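Run: sequence + zinc ion -> complex structure.
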Amino acid sequence: MRTRALTIRPLALMLGLSLGSMASAVAAADAAADLAVRWADAVSGAQLASNWAELEQITLAHGGDRSAGSAGYDASARYVEARLRAMGVTVRREPFTYNGRASFNLIAEIAGRAGADAPVVMVGSHLDSVPGSPGADDNGSGSSAVLEIARVAMLDRAASTLHLVWWGAEESGLNGSIHHATQLAMDAERRQRLRVYLNADMVGSPNYIFGIYDPDHASSSDRPAQERLIRQALRDGLGHTGSPSVSISPYLGSDHLPFAACGIATGGLASIPGIRNKTTEEQALFGGEAGKRHSPNYHRPADRVDAGSATAQLTLTRALAYALGHLAEQPPEATPATRCNLRKARQQWQQARAVLH
Ligand SMILES: [Zn+2]
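>> structure
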C-alpha cells in the first residue's frame, strides 16, 4: 500500500488535492480490493457443487425441467427461498405477467453497511430452463452460483446493498428481467441507487472458456464508461483465481439486456462465447476440445450436472464474487437516467436466439 501512496502523492500535489483526501481514496480502493479477495476466497467448491446437484435433483423430481409455470420452476424457487431464509437473507417474489401467463422473479436483499440510502449493486441469473431440459448449465450453474454468493456476502457485509435475483421466464423472452427493469426505470430514486447489474448465465459449460461481456468487442460501443470498471473488476477476479480470460460479445441474449437498454452499467461472465465451435486459440488458453461446441447439451435433456464442469463453475463464481465485492465496496457513479429502449433489448435477444437454433 505504501508504494501506491507514494506514486499518488505527486499527482495529488499536481492536482492541488489535499493529501488527506487522496489518502482516503487510497484507503477506499484498498478496502474494496480486500473485500473482493475475502469474498472470492470464501466461495466453497463443496457448497457450490451441492447447490448445483440439489437444484437438479429437485428439478428431476418435479417433471424434469424448470420452464416458466412448471412444477419444476415452483419447487426450485421454494428451494432457493428456503436456503436464503436459512442464511438470514430477506427474499420476496416479484410477480409479473407476459403473453397472458404468470410467473415471478425472486429478489433477495442484503443491506449494506452504509444504511438505507446505500447504493445498490445487483447480480442475477435466470432460474427457468427451456421445456424438456433440466438446464444444468443453462442455468442451474448460474442460479447455484448466485446462491453461494449470497452465503459469502452474509459473512462479510459490503458498503452497498446487494440485490441477488433469480429471473423467471428468461427462456420465453427475458420476461422477468424486462418487468423488473421497466419498473425500476419508472422510479427515479431507485433507478439512481442501482449502480451495477452483473449477469450469470451458463457458467458450467463442459468445453468451457472464461468469458467477460465486452461491448467494445462487439459492434456497438455506446455504453456507459462505468462498464470499464466492471470489466476490470471481472478481469481482476479471474486474475485472482490464476485464470486467463477472453472478451465475449455481451449480446448473448440474457437478462442484462433490459438493464443495458435502460442505460444501467452491466457486465457478466460466461463459460460459453455464443453458439459456435471452440477455436484452437480458445483450446490453447483453456484446454478442452477445439472444433466442438462449448455446451454440447444446450437446451437438451442431456444438460445435466454430471456433464457440466465444476471447475468452470467454481472459477467463474469466485471471479464473480470478487468483482461483486469490489463494486459493492466501491460502487461506480450512477449513470444518467435514459428512456428504456426495450425494443432494442428484445431485438438483441431474438437475434441471439436466431443464431442458436
Ligand atoms: Zn440461459
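>> summary
Confidence is low (pLDDT under 50) at residues 1-9. The pocket of zinc ion is lined by residues 126, 138-139, 201-202, 254 (CB under 6 Å).
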